[in-house]
Design goal:
Blueprint lengths: L1 E5 L4 H13 L4 E6 L19 E5 L5 H11 L3 E4 L6 H6 L1 H23 E3 L2 E2 L7 E7 L23 H20 L3 E6 L2 E2 L8 H10 L4 E4 L5 E3 L1 E2 H14 L5 E4 L4 E3 H15 L1 H6 L9 E4 L14 H7 L6 H17 L5
The structure holds nicotinamide-adenine-dinucleotide (NAD).
Length: 344
């Protein structure tokens, strides 16, 4: 089976390509990625020579290129990650988000329709199992108060240009199922953490600043709550939905791992305190927590996201792994890379 993965040089896409080539070495994966500031081919070093992996540098908004790739590889599936993904950047430069997240999604979706369908609700025999899997975020549902959870039935209420552009792309994907009968699935997941995440995101920023003994910036009072999902768990969930999810359906992916940003930064500092006692002593410090500083809150900052993921759990058997172990392992890897020394 030939699969198109868009945005595969980014954080989640690169983890997903490595996961898939390990699990399904016979699938051919073509990675279409523009290599914006967020994409990095170093993330794919482990598979760059894999006989069933191919990289194409290009823009998902370039219809001619996308059509060429569909006709050359006759894709049986698309897993669509490519997006502008950082909320702070969407506040400064929303147009790039509309361009890539809305127009880019439309382009790939529409080329899939033209390639896979003869006409409305008539799939070409050759593409009878071909599926478009759209990767989205829980941020499309807006914000929660202290209680409650997002479910697949929650109303859309995006609050940032990023989440609004993702919401728009979700709607396009939905409409292609209802209007044309295109085989689509959408997954909306919570905040991910894990290897290959860009430095600009919260967990890498905390670790990077701590290792440089610089102040660790936390928005507002650090009370915003996120449900942190390990990226490999996310990859397993995508695999389940791509292969066995019901066409036209949305699946929410969460981790049952809610924390305030303050809890999270404290936990990371405690792991660092344990692993780097000598470094702390050298700096005459007791704890990395001494580096935490509070900065002005982000405008429109959603208070809490939390996900009820019982649908994917009950229908497809999705469960999560231990967040504490994953976080500790990740921090160990970053320390090793940063200081080029192996601890433990
Ligand atoms: P990322 O920013 O790390 O990677 C995005 C990738 O897309 C990069 O490699 C970039 O070069 C590529 N790209 C950007 N514009 C492109 C274009 N016009 N054409 C081709 N490639 C382009 O993002 P990520 O964190 O890996 O997120 C991947 C997807 O998952 C996104 O759709 C995002 O909305 C969604 N998501 C992410 C999270 C998270 O916590 N990171 C949570 C929920 C959903």
């Amino acid at each position: 089976m030939n699969l198109l993965v868009t945005g595969g040089a980014g954080f989640i896409g690169s983890n997903f390509i490595i996961y898939m080539l390990n699990k399904f070495p016979k699938y051919k994966i073509v990675n279409l990625d523009l290599l914006t500031y967020a994409g990095n081919l170093e993330n794919l070093k482990a598979v760059e020579k894999h006989p069933n992996y191919e990289f194409v540098k290009g823009n998902i908004c370039n219809r001619e290129l996308v059509e060429y790739l569909f006709s050359k590889y006759e894709f049986q599936g698309v897993i669509h990650f490519a997006a502008e993904s950082h909320v702070d950047n969407s506040i400064k430069n929303p147009s790039a988000f509309v361009e890539t997240n809305v127009l880019g999604t439309f382009t790939v979706l529409d080329v899939a329709r033209n390639t896979w369908l003869d006409k409305q609700n008539e799939v070409k025999e050759k593409y009878k199992n071909a599926r478009f899997h759209h990767i989205s975020t829980d941020e499309v549902y807006g914000t929660l108060g202290e209680g409650g959870y997002f479910t697949e039935d929650s109303p859309y209420a995006p609050n940032s240009p990023y989440s609004a552009s993702k919401a728009a792309s979700d709607m396009l994907v939905r409409s292609y199922y209802h209007t044309y009968g295109l085989n689509v699935v959408t997954t909306n997941c919570s905040n991910n953490f894990g290897p290959n995440q860009h430095d600009e995101k919260l967990i890498p920023t905390i670790i990077r600043k701590a290792l440089a003994f610089e102040s660790i910036p936390i928005y507002g009072e650090g009370l915003n709550v996120r449900d942190w999902l390990f990226v490999e768990d996310h990859c397993r969930a995508i695999d389940l939905v791509f292969h066995d999810g019901k066409s036209g359906e949305t699946y929410l992916i969460g981790a049952d791992n809610e924390r305030t940003n303050l809890d999270l930064v404290n936990e990371i500092c405690e792991i660092l305190d344990e692993k780097l006692q000598l470094k702390l002593k050298e700096k005459e410090m007791n704890s990395f927590k001494q580096l935490i500083t509070f900065v002005d809150d982000r405008p429109g900052h959603d208070f809490r996201y939390a996900i009820d993921f019982s649908k994917i759990n009950l229908e497809l058997g999705f469960t999560v792994s231990s967040s504490k172990e994953n976080l500790s392992k990740l921090i160990g890897q970053i320390i090793t890379r940063t200081y080029s020394l192996r601890l433990n």
